[in-house]
């Protein structure tokens, strides 16, 4: 036995795996002869875009593929015997495979919100996983679970044991999920997009945790992800999948240094990265043939000259505050005395004509609320949002009637979700002409011409006008969403996480399109994103939000290369770079963010009774700090990355 | 440096493998072209609906049944009120094709009746010498088509001087088969009209509650809860009692329709409300608001089309309830009254146990009730599945 373990061998070996689904006509091959392996105690990353078959591979290894799937090939798993076991040969959901699931192989899913049962405590679910495979007493199980919870970074495991999943944040749940997957001491962990739903700082912590477990316990990991940055930081070996086939495989350093296959090369060029390199025009996998932008500019009714950059800001927010009341029970007619949640807390900033202002922050930082205030989907509780186009000065929060109607044509929003943002019951032509119909722009013939011009500008054929949104891919739908926002020839467009639902290869397309449109149509953008690489690529200036407050704002280069506020620094440090030679600072990531504020230098801490202000560091660089602190109290600017 | 196999031998160092497969960035992913690119919502629904075999068959069945209401007088061999005093409580006659080993086409044997004086009942026996061939597309009993045009054409009629009672006769010697066909007119339309009433109430009330929310929504929700908590039969009885005895049968019919509709709208309203709540959160509704569209446009262009398919499905599921409601009310003697004839009226004849024991063919009106209700349920099921073609 021992000698066997010392021999070089594969822990998991997938040979020629094929998974197909019967369709109305023919069949759909999701995985097409994929082969890969995971060495004991090593991390193999399975990389691919959506639809590449990577998740299906992971599920099939566990025997969790849909019932109608037709599977062939071999999945050899080492169980410490002379011959590895072929998992595909086991009866579906039989005793053998169930003994392996959870015991020998643990699994972590993408969505921490839905992977726990809401009705049972964390401890209950953890000890269930444990006692299924290792019969033991309750108290013994509790002890083992608490040890595991402590190991994944809960300071008070005894308390967490008795909590319900809803009492934990997303990152905490993902930790608990890892504890559950690892509780029986499996030799393999399948992690399907374990950090995709998390904020960057939390992502860095989870990555650090997975790495620690791997090193301490000799845990092998099959990491399924689309994020090359995550891969570069964690993986020992990489397998790149595309349409169910393995395109390229190799050791991490080799793959990143010398990508060979045109698909992988294209993928790597399409990812926006931090640093100066990230500002070179991206090369999308598929260029879109968009030539109609100039024509569109000609057809728009606003004369371009009016949009020359001016000294006065186009939009200025002053002390804008917005709070939400927690949703109370519908039958309580008397007002509840629940504390309102302040989503936006005294934000002041200017957006200048023709620029792209990036707004970054983690979930819950209030950046989307700022976007909604700017398009008047919400009204601020206090403060003013002045829109000044050189002729009229309007307060966006106060406008009513005609002024509001006019405003609606000047400011538009592009949505995050390309599925939900287009009505499934209207043709693309109707969707694009709806804004024109609403505002009775031009004759029907002119509207039709404009719709065609819009379609050409986003690189779709005119035939698209009679089709329905369901027949377009995510990237094409997002382009249609952009065209709809452009229909009324607005000058200010808010892009709310416009590429976060898209694959990287499509992301580059959309970003380039937005850039071209901005240049030709003289647009002003507010670009809201949690992805610092994307913001680095798009924005001229960057504003950073933290818990509803603006903590730092300045020109992109200053924010990216010489951030001052500790929160900005933490954000930047947590971004995984798709380059194995620039690994994440794992030690820094181990500090939980909830406590991060306590580690900040005194000048930045938010203390009751200590007034704060935006200190001007020169060059348009402002940072939130205590009034009493002097700029020279700041830690010296240093270049990160 | 590339090897044809991406897998090294077990445990060996991984070499850099590059797939020889070409990469065409413009190629469409497999399965992307379904030939449905230009398909509208309706067409997608239809394609999905067609796959639900039972629902499709049910739909065709219902369509034919409803179409038959237009020509009931032609299909039925007898009028609603035609009596044959010689044949009271006669059992169903079997349609035969062969007589004495030779083919004669569809015919029935004539029957002779004698009174069994010990059991005091009429006994009918087939008379094999009396072959009565059915006639088709024939001149038979005269009737007023749609109460307007005098006519006497029938799909089939008995032989000259003979009779045909496929499902027997009742206590007045009336043909049960003809009465079922005539009763369908009332029973089937009461279901549709009642659903129309409840549908309209449901869309308007549920729509306002769903779009406006606030106090109106509150009030409506509480009201619906109260209405739904009242036991239905006493409530029906109360409402039916309000209908004055002096009303003409047709007014009673309309009154019953409204009563059924008034009690059923609550479920519709809730469905509309919750669906609107969900739709209001969709980004495309916000997009319409942000382009400056008025509420009326948003409701009519975006919200109502979004809920319509679901509404039609749930409406088709509520028709059976209406039909059953009418049948139950009438059976209790609270609904329609003769001479209006519905399936419920026909079934009131079967209230005695002795009837069920002696004249079981009087229960035949239950067959169309069951068939129609099943068909509506299957149809509604299929429509509901088809209503969301993107799943």
Automatic annotation (TrEMBL), chain A:
Major localisation: membrane
All copies of domain ABC transporter, residue ranges: 12-268, 315-572
One Gene Ontology term of the molecular function aspect: ATP hydrolysis activity
InterPro entries assigned: AAA+_ATPase, ABC_transp_ATP-bind, ABC_transporter-like_ATP-bd, ABC_transporter-like_CS, Oligopep_ABC_C, P-loop_NTPase
Membrane topology classification: Peripheral membrane protein
PROSITE patterns named in the record: ABC_TRANSPORTER_1 (PS00211), ABC_TRANSPORTER_2 (PS50893)
Family classification: Belongs to the ABC transporter superfamily.
PANTHER family linked: D,D-DIPEPTIDE TRANSPORT ATP-BINDING PROTEIN DDPF-RELATED, TRANSPORT ATP-BINDING PROTEIN
The protein's name in its UniProt record: Dipeptide ABC transporter ATP-binding protein
TrEMBL record, chain B:
CDD domains associated with the record: TM_PBP2
Principal cellular location given in the protein's record: membrane
Annotated keywords: Membrane, Transmembrane, Transmembrane helix, Transport
Cellular localisation: Cell membrane
UniProt domain ABC transmembrane type-1: residue ranges: 184-380
Record field: transmembrane: 54-76, 186-211, 250-267, 311-336, 356-379
Pfam families tied to this protein: BPD_transp_1 (PF00528), OppC_N (PF12911)
An annotated GO cellular component: plasma membrane
Domain of life: Bacteria
Gene Ontology BP, a term: transmembrane transport
Topology with respect to the bilayer: Multi-pass membrane protein
UniProt cross-references to PANTHER family, sorted A to Z: OLIGOPEPTIDE ABC TRANSPORTER, PERMEASE PROTEIN (PTHR43839:SF3), OPPC IN A BINDING PROTEIN-DEPENDENT TRANSPORT SYSTEM (PTHR43839)
Family: Belongs to the binding-protein-dependent transport system permease family.
Protein name from the UniProt record: ABC transporter permease subunit
Species this chain originates from: Paracoccus aestuariivivens
Higher taxonomy: Bacteria, Pseudomonadati, Pseudomonadota, Alphaproteobacteria, Rhodobacterales
């Amino acid at each position: 036995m021992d000698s066997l373990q010392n021999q070089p061998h594969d822990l998991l070996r997938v040979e020629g795996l094929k998974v197909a689904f019967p369709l109305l006509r023919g069949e759909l091959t999701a995985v097409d002869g994929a082969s890969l392996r995971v060495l004991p105690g090593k991390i193999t990353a399975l990389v691919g875009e959506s639809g590449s078959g990577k998740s299906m591979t992971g599920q099939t290894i566990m025997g969790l593929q849909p019932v109608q799937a037709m599977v062939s090939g071999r999945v050899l798993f080492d169980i410490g015997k002379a011959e590895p076991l072929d998992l595909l040969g086991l009866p579906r959901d039989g005793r053998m495979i169930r003994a392996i699931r959870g015991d020998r192989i643990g699994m972590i899913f993408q969505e921490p919100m839905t992977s726990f049962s809401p009705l049972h405590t964390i401890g209950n679910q953890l000890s269930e996983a444990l006692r299924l495979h290792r019969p033991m007493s309750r108290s013994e199980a509790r002890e083992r679970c608490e040890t595991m919870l402590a190991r994944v970074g809960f300071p008070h495991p005894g308390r967490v044991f008795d909590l319900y999943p809803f009492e934990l944040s997303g990152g905490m749940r993902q930790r608990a999920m890892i504890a559950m997957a690892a509780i029986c001491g499996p030799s393999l962990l399948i992690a399907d997009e374990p950090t995709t739903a998390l904020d960057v700082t939390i992502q860095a912590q989870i990555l650090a945790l997975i790495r620690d477990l791997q090193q301490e316990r000799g845990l092998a990991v099959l990491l399924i992800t689309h994020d090359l940055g995550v891969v570069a930081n964690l993986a020992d070996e990489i397998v790149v999948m595309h349409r169910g086939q393995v395109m390229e495989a190799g050791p991490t350093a080799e793959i990143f240094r010398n990508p060979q296959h045109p698909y992988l090369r294209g993928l790597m060029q399409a990812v926006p990265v931090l640093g100066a390199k990230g500002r070179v025009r991206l090369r999308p996998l598929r260029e879109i043939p968009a030539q109609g932008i100039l024509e569109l500019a000609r057809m728009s009714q606003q004369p371009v000259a009016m949009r020359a950059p001016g000294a006065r800001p186009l939009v200025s927010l002053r002390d804008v505050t917005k709070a939400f009341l927690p949703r109370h029970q519908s039958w309580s007619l008397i007002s509840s005395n629940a504390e309102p949640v302040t989503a936006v807390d005294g934000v002041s900033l200017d957006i200048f004509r023709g620029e792209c202002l990036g707004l970054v922050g983690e979930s819950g930082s209030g950046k989307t609320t700022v976007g909604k205030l700017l398009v008047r989907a919400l009204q601020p509780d206090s403060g003013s949002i002045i829109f000044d186009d050189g002729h009229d000065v309007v307060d966006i929060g106060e406008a009513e009637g005609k002024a509001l109607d006019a405003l609606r044509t000047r400011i538009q929003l592009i949505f995050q979700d390309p599925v939900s943002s287009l009505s499934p019951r209207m043709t693309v032509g109707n969707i694009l002409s709806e804004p024109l119909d609403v505002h009775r722009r031009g004759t029907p013939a002119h509207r039709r011409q404009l719709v065609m011009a819009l379609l050409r500008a986003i690189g779709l054929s005119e035939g698209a006008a009679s089709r329905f949104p369901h027949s377009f891919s995510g990237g094409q739908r997002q382009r249609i969403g952009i065209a709809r926002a452009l229909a009324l020839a607005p000058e200010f467009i808010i892009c709310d996480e416009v590429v976060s639902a898209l694959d990287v290869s499509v992301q580059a397309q959309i970003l380039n399109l937005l850039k071209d449109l901005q240049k030709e149509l003289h647009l002003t953008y507010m670009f809201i994103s949690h992805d610092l690489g994307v913001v680095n690529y798009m924005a001229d200036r960057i504003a950073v939000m933290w818990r509803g407050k603006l903590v730092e704002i300045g020109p992109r280069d200053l924010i990216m290369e010489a951030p001052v506020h500790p929160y900005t620094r933490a954000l930047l440090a947590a971004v995984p770079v798709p380059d194995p030679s620039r690994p994440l600072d794992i030690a820094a990531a181990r500090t939980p963010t909830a406590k991060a504020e306590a580690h900040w230098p005194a000048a930045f801490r938010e203390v009751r009774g200590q007034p704060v202000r935006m200190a001007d560091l020169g060059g348009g660089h402002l940072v939130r700090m205590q009034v009493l602190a002097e700029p020279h109290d700041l830690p010296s600017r240093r270049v990160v990355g | 440096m590339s090897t044809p196999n991406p897998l090294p031998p077990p445990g060996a160092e991984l070499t850099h493998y590059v797939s020889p497969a070409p990469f065409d960035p413009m190629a469409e992913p497999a399965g992307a072209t379904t030939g449905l690119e230009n398909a509208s919502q309706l067409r997608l629904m239809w394609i999905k609906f067609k796959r639900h075999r039972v629902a499709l068959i049910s739909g065709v069945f219902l369509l034919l049944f409803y179409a038959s209401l237009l020509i009931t007088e032609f299909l039925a061999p007898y009028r609603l009120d035609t009596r044959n005093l010689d044949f009271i409580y006669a059992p169903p006659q079997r349609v035969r094709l062969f007589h004495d080993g030779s083919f004669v086409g569809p015919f029935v044997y004539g029957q002779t009746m004698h009174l069994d004086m010990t059991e005091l009942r009429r006994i009918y026996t087939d008379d094999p010498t009396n072959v009565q061939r059915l006639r088709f597309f024939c001149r038979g009993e005269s009737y007023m088509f749609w109460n307007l045009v005098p006519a006497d054409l029938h799909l089939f009629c008995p032989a000259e001087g003979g009779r045909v009672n496929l499902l027997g006769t009742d206590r007045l010697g009336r043909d049960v088969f003809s009465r079922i066909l005539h009763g369908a007119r009332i029973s089937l339309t009461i279901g549709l009209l009642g659903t129309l009433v409840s549908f309209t109430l449901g869309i308007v009330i549920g729509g306002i509650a769903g779009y406006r929310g606030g106090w109106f929504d509150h009030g409506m929700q509480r009201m619906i809860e109260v209405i739904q908590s009242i036991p239905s039969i006493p409530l029906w009885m109360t409402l039916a009692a309000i209908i004055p005895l002096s009303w003409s049968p047709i007014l009673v019919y309309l009154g019953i329709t409204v009563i059924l509709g008034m009690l059923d709208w609550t479920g519709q309203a809730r469905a509309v409300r919750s669906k609107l709540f969900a739709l209001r959160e969709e980004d495309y509704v916000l997009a319409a608001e942000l382009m400056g569209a008025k509420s009326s446009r948003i409701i009519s262009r975006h919200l109502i089309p979004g809920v319509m398919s679901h509404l039609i499905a749930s409406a088709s599921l509520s028709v059976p309830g209406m039909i059953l409601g009418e049948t139950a009310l009438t059976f209790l003697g609270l609904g329609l009254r003769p001479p209006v004839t519905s399936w419920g009226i026909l079934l009131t004849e079967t209230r005695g146990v002795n009837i069920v024991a002696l004249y079981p063919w009087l229960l035949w009106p239950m067959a169309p009730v069951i068939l129609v209700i099943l068909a509506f349920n299957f149809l509604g099921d299929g429509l509901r599945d088809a209503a969301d073609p993107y799943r």
